[in-house]
Amino acid sequence: MRNTIRPFLVALALVAFAAPVAAAQSPLKIAYVNSRQLLAEAPGSDQAQQMFEREMSGYQAEVEQMGQALQTQIQEFQRTAREMPEARRDSIAQVLGQQQDAYQQRVMQLEQTAQQREMQLSQPIMQNIQKVLSDYRSAEGYHFIFDIAAQGSPVVAADTTLDVTQAVLTRLKALPAPALPAAADSSRPPTTPPAGPVAQPAGVRRPPGS
Question: How far apart are CA 113 and CA 190, in angstroms?
Fold first, then answer.
């Protein structure tokens, strides 16, 4: 999957475990792969990306609708507040504050849902990648296969002849696309209000002052 779904690939850096101790007497045989390319071209990746974007568009529309409605109410209150009796002004301000809190909690819930959904959609694809890597390492007699795309990778330069990404991709593409998990129901609010600063999905704009 590309761009939107963040690649959970750190584990690939050591997915190819060392061969048995007895084999350590033979010359060390190592290779590397680009896990970003593997994930981008793995069977099921495009479907997962499309599914994720389709689901996120619904969340985005919901948040934008809530935000616009709240923004309209805030602007109307600011326009008429001076003419209101103090008690009514305070009452409306309190209601708007509660609506603002509910909006922020919903944004946080959808952000958490999006992160969980990324992991759910990535998991079956990652399992295929890890299986192919493990089988390839064993079949070709490699002691280690490193991931040069992993965050914090210690590899700063490498012989390109050690790149086995295409060979792994050939095996990976021979597998059928994995079944992707259906989306969970995100319509229910969280059982407990989230604590801490409120995060929001990319591109969502909150009303000023929120």
Answer: 11
Contacts of 134 (CB under 8 A, 6+ apart): 15, 16, 17
Are 165 and 37 contacting, i.e. CB atoms less than 8 angstroms apart?
yes
- pLDDT tens digits, 93-144: 999 999 999 999 999 999 998 999 999 999 999 999 999 999 999 999 999 9
Write down the architecture of domain 10-173 according to CATH: 2-Layer Sandwich (3.30)
φ, ψ for residue 36, nearest 5 deg: -65, -40
- Closest Cα partner for 56 from 103, 114, 5? 114
pLDDT one-digit tens code per residue, 50-86: 999 998 998 889 999 999 999 999 999 999 989 899 9
pLDDT in the model for residue 42: 95
Q: Which residues of 172-201 are buried (b: 16+ CB within 10 A; e: fewer)?
A: beeeebbebeeeeebeeeeeeeeeeebebb
Residue with tokens 């190592």: 30
Size (the chain), residues? 210
Distance CA 14, CA 182 (A): 30
Amino acid in position 42: A
Q: What local confidence, expressed as pLDDT, does residue 25 receive?
A: 60
| Partners of 163 in beta bridges | 32
Cβ atoms 134, 15 nearer than 8 A: yes
Q: In sequence order, what are the beta bridge partners of 16?
A: 145
